UniProtKB/TrEMBL annotation:
Gene3D superfamilies the record matches: Cyclophilin-like, Tetratricopeptide repeat domain
Record protein name field: peptidylprolyl isomerase
Keywords recorded for this protein, A-Z: Isomerase, Repeat, Rotamase, TPR repeat
Top-rank EC class of the record's enzyme: isomerase
GO molecular function terms listed in the Swiss-Prot or TrEMBL record: cyclosporin A binding; peptidyl-prolyl cis-trans isomerase activity; unfolded protein binding
Reactions performed catalytically: [protein]-peptidylproline (omega=180) = [protein]-peptidylproline (omega=0)
EC nos: 5.2.1.8
Length: 394
């Protein structure tokens, strides 16, 4: 990296729903022509030789090829800006800023214009590396590009490396995990909804996760992408999972329930990823399990507040199905599950869970009041039914 390395952003949407922003740092010194091309296509200031109106731009362009554990690819600005995702020619075109109108007008058998030479043909040793997608032969770069999602040593010497994703790795992962057909064509419409020069003051919007660092959560959304500790450093992994959970709790206290939910799910991902087997580290295994119980309870509560009652019931049930759950935590799970059933107007199941809660926490006066209230509602409902039936036969 040098001081002159520009930074650009790509805002991504899936089926017209924004998912977040990818920020890329471009390697101007190592790949000057590729960098200039990508930069100018992001800001959209070069007049298009393809028609008399508009400028060449990645805005509105689709990701037309996605291969899990390898890469995501976009940049066909000839065909890929059309909204018909079934268009068979998407991925067969491209146009760099180096193209001119004469080339476009005289080209007969190609839809790729302004091809330019390879640069920085190094090794793709890390995920989230930007590379130029060529036509399968040297010096045929245009506008198509790809972002690796894993190391790809087999690409050595075949593609120009010109940048790196520095923010929005979870957005790349979201695109990577979208469903595709047998040819790697996404089944969803994945597009660059906006792009341009990025500055820190612009931030990194994220809509399917939370990148709020409240409480010290500096960890990547996906555990595999985080580099703060090794995969067998169970102590630091446990600390990270707890920090993420507490970050969610701080957001919950601010009544930011949606982002609190993202944090709790992220914490659960870290727990599931790093929890050691008991025969490897029994003490850490117990600590991870204890934290997992707390996260299940938090997920049940925040989902209840988001009025996602079925999901709230699910996470309360996950806790109750675990071994050696303390009575106090079981009581909380029964209470939250009962509240969700109550909101769904399933009074009998609500009452049953409240009664289980009382068994685990017999001195709780609030649950006694809750039980009495639901019993009265059930009796009122039965009485109303009896009256309706008696009217029918009178």
């Amino acid at each position: 990296m040098t001081e002159s390395d520009p930074e650009v952003y790509l805002d991504i949407s899936v089926d017209n729903k924004p998912i977040g922003r990818i920020v890329c740092r471009l390697f101007r010194k190592d790949a000057p022509r590729a960098t200039e091309n990508f930069y100018k296509l992001c800001i959209g200031e070069v007049k298009s030789p393809l028609n008399d109106k508009g400028c060449l731009s990645y805005k509105g362009n689709s990701f037309h090829r996605v291969v899990k554990n390898f890469m995501i690819q976009a940049g066909d600005i000839v065909f890929g800006t059309q909204k018909d995702s079934s268009l068979s020619s998407v991925g067969k075109g491209g146009c760099s800023i180096y193209a001119n109108k004469e080339e476009v007008n005289t080209s007969n058998d190609s839809s790729c214009y302004g091809n330019f030479e390879d640069e920085n043909l190094g090794e793709f040793l890390e995920p989230f590396t930007l590379g130029m997608a060529n036509l399968g032969s040297p010096n045929t770069n245009n506008s198509q590009f790809f972002i690796t999602t894993y190391a790809a040593p087999h690409l050595k010497g075949k593609h120009s490396i010109f940048g790196q994703v520095i923010h929005g790795k979870s957005v790349v992962r979201t695109v990577e995990y979208c469903s595709v057909d047998a040819d790697g064509v996404p089944e969803s419409d994945i597009r660059i909804s906006d792009c341009g020069v990025w500055e820190k003051s612009m931030g990194v919007p994220l809509y399917n996760a939370s990148n709020d660092q409240i409480g010290g959560d500096i960890f990547e959304e996906f555990p595999d992408d985080d580099t703060h500790f090794g995969e067998e450093d169970f102590g630091k992994a446990l600390e990270a999972a707890n920090i993420i959970k507490e970050s969610g709790t701080l957001l919950f206290k601010k009544k930011d329930y949606s982002n609190a939910l993202f944090k709790y799910r992220k914490s659960l991902n870290y727990i599931n990823e790093y929890m050691p087997e008991p025969d490897v580290d029994k003490e850490r295994n117990d600590q991870f399990i204890c934290l997992k119980m707390k996260v299940f309870l938090n997920l049940s509560l925040v989902l209840f507040n988001l009025e996602k009652y079925d999901d709230s019931i699910t996470y309360a049930t996950y806790l109750l199905e675990m071994d050696n759950v303390p009575d106090k935590d079981q009581a909380k799970a029964y209470y939250r599950r009962g509240n969700s059933y109550f909101r769904k107007k399933r009074l009998d199941e609500a009452l049953q869970n409240y009664e289980f809660c009382k068994e685990k926490n017999p001195n709780d006066t609030i649950i006694e009041q809750r039980i009495e209230y639901v019993v009265n509602l059930i009796e009122e409902k039965k009485e109303k039914t009896r009256k309706n039936i008696s009217k029918f036969f009178s």
